[in-house]
Structures are given as C-alpha cells and as structure tokens.
Input
Amino acid sequence: MKRLGPRVEEKVARVGLWALTLITVGVLFFIIFFILRRGLPVLSLEFLTANPVDMGKSGGIFSTIVGTAALTVLALLIAAPLGVGTAIFLTEYTWGGPVTRIIRFGAECLAGIPSIIFGLFGFILFVTKLKLGWSILSGGLTLAFMLLPTIIRTSEEAIKGVPPAYRQVSFSLGSTKWQTVTRVVLPSAMPGIVTGIVLSIGRSIGETAATIFTAGSALRFPTSIFSSTRTMSVHFYILAREGISMSKAYGTAAILIIAILGINVLTYYLMNRFIKKYS
Amino acid sequence: MSDIAIRVQGFSQFFGDVRKLNALDLDVRRNEILGIIGPARSGKSTFLCALNRLNDLVRGSRHEGTITIDGRDIYAPDVDVVELRRRLGMVFATPVPLPRSIYENVAFGARRAGVSGRERLDVLVRDSLEKGGLWEEVKDRLGTSALKLSGGQQQRLCVARILAVMPEFILLDEPTSGLDPISTMKIEESLRRLKKDYTIILVTNNTKQAARVADRTAFFLSGDLVEVGPTPQIFTAPADQRTDDYLRGKFG
Output
C-alpha cells in the first residue's frame, strides 16, 4: 500500500482523534441528557423537601438525600485523615522498605475489590458481629474502607510530586520534619489530595452495593448515626427494580447527577482560589 | 576567641558503599569567604551538606571523622540538628522559592523558629531583603508570589531568606551557576558586604568567581582536598600540579 503523505497523515490523525474525543463526550452528554430529560420534569421543591410516602411511590426524597449526605460525610471524616495520614507516612517517614511495599500492595489490592464484597464484609463485621445493625455508622465505616485505597494512592502521588528541593530548603532553614510536612509538603500537594477526595465523594454518593447491605434501606428520616437509612442510589435501584415509580426513580437520578456535578464544580473553584493563594 | 570557626578533621562521607569525601582536614576562619572549587562530582556540595547535616536525609548516609563548630562536635548525639541548620544558612544552585509570597518566603524560617508578631516580622523581612540586596526591587510587591521574580531576584531572595534566620554561616552551592553576569555581579556584591557579619563558604564551578571574592580557596578533586590557601597563592602559585592543571583548564 502506498504510504500517505505527511500532510494527509496529519489530517487523518487530527480528524481521527477528534472523532474519538467526540464519541467520549457524546456518550457522557447522552447519559446526562437521557437522565435529565426524564428526571427534571419530576423535580420540584416538594420532591426535594418531602419524605417518601407509600414506598416512594409519592412524596419526595428528602430522607434519602439526608441519608446519602450523612453516609458520605461520615465516610470521608474517617477515610480522609486515615488515608492522607497513611500516605504521608508511606512517602515521608519510610525509606521504601519491605513493610512499605506490603502496605502499598495491600492498598492496591483493596482498590480492586468489587464494592459488593465490601458490602458483605461490612454486613458481617459491623452489622452483625459488632451489632451496629443497619445504620449510618455501619455504612459510613464500610464506605470509608472502600474509599481508603483511592485516597491513599492519590495522596501518595500528590505528595511524591512535590519537588524534593522544597523539602531541602525547608530543612536547611531549620524546619523540623513535621513543620516541613505541614507547612511545605501538604500545601503543595493539596490540589492532588483534594482531587482524590473529590473522586471519593463521587464514588461514595453513587455507591449502591456497599450501602444497601450496611446502611439498609429504611425510608424513615434518620435521627442519629445508629438509624438505618436509604441512600439516593439505593432508592433509585429499589424504585426502578420493584417498578414502584419510574418517574420518581429518574427524579432521584437527576438529583444524584446534579449533586455530583455541583460538588465537582465547587471543589475545583475552591481549589483554584487555594492555588492562587499559594503560588 | 579562636578565629577558627569550623574545624574539619579526618572527615569522610559515605552514601551506602560509595565514599564521597576522603578524610578531609580543613579549617574555616571566622568572617572569611572560603571559596571551594573543583570539577563536577568532586564532593564540593557533599561537603556543604555535611556541615549542615543535610546529608542525614539521604538514605544510607554515614561518616567518619569529626566536624566541630566553635569546638563542639556537630555530629554528637546531643546536638539539635534543627538548631544547627539555623546557624548555617544554605543557598542552593537553582533558586528554590517556595510557592508563597515574597514576604512569606523571607519569613518562613523565622516563623518556624517561633518568631511571631506582625511588627517583628515586618522589620525582619525588610532587614533581610536589604542585606540580600533585593529590597528596592520588591518593596512594593511583597505580597506577590515569589515564583514571579526573575532567576537572579529569586536567588537574592534565597539569600535574604536565610539571613532572616540569623545564621552565623552562609553556605552557597554554586549560587550563580544559572544566572546572567549582571545578576552574578549583584550576588557577589552582596557576599562582599555580608562578609563583615558572617562566615561564608562559597562552592563554585566558576574559578574566576572564587578569584574575585574568596579570601582563601580550596581545591577539591574526587572527594579529596588537594590544597587550600590564600586565593592569590592558589591562583598564581599552586603547590599541587593538579590544581595548576585544573586552573589552566586541562580538565574539569
């Protein structure tokens, strides 16, 4: 076959890559459009502020919004400090010996485990063994374990990306190790760490399998972390699978998507302000 | 009081199995500028980092022999390394401003040492920038990012930054290697001024720079101290053939 001229080759590459990008973005927009077209008409103030009535056939989804938020916040409160702390330890306080490698390998394995396994594990450990029952606490702990590997990995990468010269400068100016970590390394790594946490928020909000086993599916408004609750994704799943109300299901899905988009936009906005302040 | 500030005796530095410095014997006198010249990988930077114990941060680092400052062994177990590093300010080859404002860069070391209070810091920052020869250029924009300064300004900022920690010694590791001649000149001017109050060790791969500013010059080669002496003597009548060869540009 005759070889294409360099100009033609360039053009083909450009058009080809363009098309691939278009497909990716197209699929994304199709999904969002599909959900929103069915979901948006259902949305109203009442849908957001009323609790579900009659298994969710009527009423709103207020208790599931609160349940999702509670689970996510709890999971992050546990996983973020643990994960960032572990990442700091692995990168700044060890020389990369066998113990570090084992911890890192463990975290990586944990990241590959399907969420339903985490659900089962959480059910056995927290719900039955520790007798926490189906509750926000059980669900939050389970989600935290699930998010931990992601947070560790992304934080580690972010911390490793901080130029070694910054540490040298900090030490040479008479900083202690801890001052170097908190005043120089962490601020510089913050954008990467936050990205990891935002990804985790998205996963946490969208998680179904791990929460249905651990937080349960109660529709009552949760009153404490020992209450069972139903997250939005579980609500969507039950509404759709049991054929209770497809319109309410799409409404819930629309809120889910809007919430995740909103959190992303807000975080990146805050992060840009942070970066401006520090550079 | 002795005019020997730093005394190095039989000092060797190892990283794992690699020996980077071979049994050095060297005295640094108070308020002198000691120039250290030598080809790349001759152990010049390693020597500086042995003085402020930055070598400790490298895995597998160990040493033999002693280094004393004012008669005290800096590797003794009871030495506070953080305190030691405050006494020896270091400027690196590439200027490394931290990603903060000019003001916060200068205040960084002082803040870590517990200096607080807006007024005290204001005075300290101004003082340090003046001594570093940068005040006039940045006094109206102390709040802007240090990363926006030019290379030469960044390096003078790094000098000012260590002055704010009130060190006794200034270690410079090829501070002008990436700078243009005018910026280099400004740094050298600052050094001549600073000599009055500080003891300065200047590592440079530019032998002419040593000739211009150093009182005494030491020649390092492959981790050995070949010779040390008054700068004019080293440059006009070196005792060792290798020094002569290096200065004539036969290698390095």
